[in-house]
Specification:
Blueprint (H helix, E strand, L loop, with lengths): L3 H10 L4 E6 L5 E6 L12 H10 L3 E5 L7 E6 L5 H13 L5 E8 L8 E3 H9 L4 E5 L3
Parallel strand pairs: 1-3, 4-7
Antiparallel strand pairs: 1-2, 3-7, 4-5, 5-6
């Protein structure tokens, strides 16, 4: 049976546009594999880059905690051109100290409910604490 990290890696690698990064302590993630021309390996991948990769460039992104974990959350990126999604994301953003909002939980074995919105503050905290991996998939 495959471990969680291997399963998530195989899932994201099925997309030609992907970035995989791993946390370095409590700092920002560092890219370990990428098909993106700008975000190559060993680049520090901060959360501003995450917004660009997801929403501007349409890349799926897999972020691992520093240590291996069987915990994970798969997030479906919201479509900013969809008025309903954009309005709901804006409410979540304003309710969370104006933190960037990425999308909704689609699958998880962490402490989330389906369709919970994932925002930057929560993501950075949980990744920094090593609570699990996050796979951000572009909505098809």
């Amino acid at each position: 049976m495959m471990d969680t990290e291997t399963r998530l890696e195989e899932r994201i690698k099925s997309s030609p546009k992907h970035i995989i990064a791993r946390m370095q302590g409590f700092d920002v993630p560092k890219v370990i594999e990428s098909t993106h021309p700008r975000f190559g390996t060993d680049i520090r991948f901060d959360y501003g880059f995450l917004n660009v990769a997801l929403f501007k460039d349409g890349y799926s992104v897999l972020l691992f905690p520093q240590e291996k974990s069987d915990k994970y959350t798969i997030v479906e990126i919201f479509d900013p051109t969809n008025t309903d999604d954009a309005m709901e994301a804006e409410v979540v953003k304003m309710s969370n100290r104006n933190e960037s909002v990425y999308g909704r939980v689609k699958e998880t074995n962490m402490d989330y409910i389906p369709d919970w919105w994932i925002h930057r503050g929560e993501l950075a905290s949980k990744l920094g604490l090593g609570e699990g991996a996050y796979l951000f998939e572009v909505k098809e």
